[in-house]
Amino acid sequence: MSDLRVWTLGLDQPYALQIAADARLSETDAAEDQVWEVVPGAGESAALALQTRYGGRAGLASLVPMWVIDRQVIYQAAQYAQPLVIRGFAPAFVQLQTRITPTLALIAEFWAMDSRAVGGRFLLRNLAKEPISLRLDMLAFVGMEGAEQMPKIIPMPGERHALALGAIGDLYPILQLDNGFHTLDAGSSKLSATLSLAAGARAALRFVCAGLPDPRESITLGQHWLTQDWGKHFKRLSVAANAAPRIETGDAALDATIAFGYTQLVQAFIRHERAAHSILLPQRQPSTTANERRWAVQDMALVYPLALAAASVDAGLAQGVVRNFIAAQHEDGSIDGAPRVGDRSTYLCLPMLARLAWSIFQYTEDSTFLREVFPPLLRFFRRWLQPDLDVDGDGAPEWQSTLQMGSSGHNLKIATENVRLIESPSLVAMLLSEATSLHAIAYYLHESTHEQPLKDEIERLKTVLETFWQPSNQRHAYLPRDRDTHRRSHAVTLLNDGIGDEEQFIAATLTPPNRVVVEIVGGLQHTPRLTLHLHGTDEQGSAIHETADESAFHWQTGRGRYTSQAVFASLDRLRAEGLVRVYRLNVRTPIIELEDLDDWLPLWSVGITPQRADEMVNHRNPLHDVTSFYSDLAPFWATTIGEGLIEYNRPTVAVDVLRAQLYAQTNALREKRAFMEWYLNVDGHPFEGVRGHNAGLPPLHLLLRSLGVRVISPTKVWTGGHFAWDKPVKIAHNGVIVERRQDGTRVQFPSGKVVELSSDAPWQEIIDATSSAP
User: Fold this and answer.
1) Residue 158: what pLDDT?
2) When comparing pLDDT for 622 and 196, which is higher?
3) Where are the alpha helices (DSSP H) in 504-620?
4) First-to-last CA distance in the chain?
5) In 312-420, which ranges are continuous DSSP H helix?
6) Helix H or strand E encompassing 156
7) Among candidate residues 589, 741, 700, the one with its CA nearest the CA of residue 264
């Protein structure tokens, strides 16, 4: 793997060594996808272990190399002559380097060949002036339901043996080793191979562990890979790995985080039986179950930043994400929100697909892709504008479900109310962004019949968005409001801890008139049968009697919440018919003014005026202290907010947001050895969330935007504009090397041609017209 970037990462540095088959190069299968993790040890623990949980089937399965040299057994980290360092990594591949003894050098390589097979290669070199003999023992440990499951030896032709790990759920994994054998004194849980190395000589030993439902098929698959020329496969793997941008910031830990981010990004993609193109998994880890993979939700909040990041690595992966959404489009133009793959959801996808497609095009300049997706994306946009999604007909559609918010935590603070009764500026901002992107696509494709109608929609949506503007002493922002009254409100408590089986006399005047939120507490997992009665008057003084049964409530464990359809000027009394005394009632007015991250989406829409952008940013003091800006920093928000800041000429603040994210992720890799779903930005430590969740990967698209570099091909680069980083950064991609500094930019093409730009050079296209490269 000489073509891979060479690292010297010690075990105190950030790293994530999960390996999963690369969907670009090998067979992947969401129904059965075995992901492994390389675990370097310290002290008395095993120096090297390759581990998996077989998708939750096993407590833990480990493969551990043990060396016997001059009758000395060496497998603990403390016994090695040198500490392990991470030398190289790529999707599906990890390489580590050490010395077993002062004169015996080792390079250990681990490779996920496909979804059902993993292997490794130990490259040994005798640095001594005398020959050396040694033995490798490959040990297998399997924990099942709190007990160790002992592997068994299987005889093989040619006086060789294999090691059966036993039944692990419906799988029968088999471990095989080059010329592997078993002797009576070797123990039943290991395979052995011997080597004699002359002075200065090199040798390699390989192993494969394949897991299929039939042990004979596991043996056959393992033998297949042991008879392959791994060098050819590693060459392809190296070429594919180098498709990702190589970024050098001068901070080795930060560079490692970025590089591992690209590796894990590619590993997030997998082929799926129900999708025409590879899908993005929320998580692809040793414990990810078959159901989690097969029924993976394609949440736009996960998809948007990851697909954009993938566009710089592999156009097919990024474009495939959009194509998968479009493939499920219905006759009325609707596209499902976050469907489990192959199933229909009950709400529309976030209107971000046109923005995604147009942004992917910026990396690929593939006009064929644009022509293919433009008509269905236009129909999808128009579906969002239909009357059934805009109950009051004011041009601002309503969200359909809290599920529509997805893993982004979008509108998290108002999701406790009935979102169909709330109008959100973030939704209007998304639609404005879609209209702007569709207009840009139509203009590029010379679709003149669509240009003016889309221009009209842009202007209309700008006007609607402006009605949400709410300046105050604390901040200037676009804020959500009630659907019908267009008012915002604080939560005012009307009843606290009322007894469930009693009629409650409220006798409260609501100024201004408002809806009421009734909360029922108790009953643990049981959902009670009930009929809620609300009595009061409306703004005209007319009597209101509103009823609702338990199906109208939003239920969580031991808690149900209902928001009234009517707007009350006074609430006289309420009764929850059917409740018993164990339940308690709380009543308040809705919360429709809390600050949330989606307040920033109008900035991202690129549809507000520069004056409004200035007011938003200048009245947000926390924005200038990024460490206190987020309580739940997520790459979706880092990407969208960062894009908005760059569009409105705030690249330095965008870099601050980006760096806060990257440093939090760097600390997560140091502490957890994996990316985390969420991050705390206060001290950079991982926040609660799933280990290895792909929602927590670095915002790599925002990184390239903040650096001001986009390499289209070996002969074409976009760069320039203000460079907001405080140190020089070098980006190598597609054979092109771009160095950006405060005093200028240097572009070197593979042909040797060099272009120098001054520090004030604008964003521009640079082409190597002298090159013969395609």
Assistant:
1) 87
2) 196
3) 601-604, 610-618
4) 26
5) 315-327, 353-364, 367-384
6) strand 152-156
7) 700
* Edge-first strand listing for the sheet containing 504-514: 504-514, 568-577, 531-537, 543-549
Are 738 and 717 in contact, with CB atoms under 8 Å apart?
yes
CB atoms closer than 10 angstroms to residue 583: 20
Q: What phi and psi values does residue 577 have, to the nearest 5 degrees?
A: -65, 125
Q: What is the C-alpha to C-alpha distance for residues 685 and 673, in angstroms, rounded to an integer?
A: 12
Considering only CA atoms, which of 587, 574, 609 is closest in space to residue 514? 587
Report the amino acid identity of residue 695: A
User: What is the average pLDDT across 728-751?
Assistant: 97
Quickly list H helices, 523-609.
Answer: 601-604
> Can you name the residues that pair with 747 across neighbouring β-strands?
738, 755
pTM of the model: 0.93
What are the DSSP calls for 45-80, one per residue? SBSEEEEE-TTTTSSEEEEEEEEEETTEEE-BGGGS
The tokens for 435 are 């209209």
Task: Please state, in angstroms and rounded to a whole number, the distance separating the CA atoms of residues 146 and 191.
Answer: 24
Please tell me the distance from the alpha carbon of residue 318 to that of residue 308, in angstroms, as a whole number.
7
The pairing of strands 531-537 and 554-556 is unpaired
Query: Helices marked H in 545-648 — which ranges?
Result: 601-604, 610-618, 635-647
From the number of C-beta atoms within 10 Å of its C-beta (0-12, 13-18, 19+), residue 492 rates as: middle
How does strand 531-537 pair with strand 568-577?
Answer: antiparallel
Give φ, ψ of 183 to 5 degrees: -120, 160
User: What is the pLDDT at residue 273?
Assistant: 86
Q: Is 157 exposed, middle or buried (0-12, 13-18, 19+ CB in 10 A)?
A: exposed
Residue located via tokens 């603990």: 76
Burial class (CB in 10 A: 0-12, 13-18, 19+), 234: buried
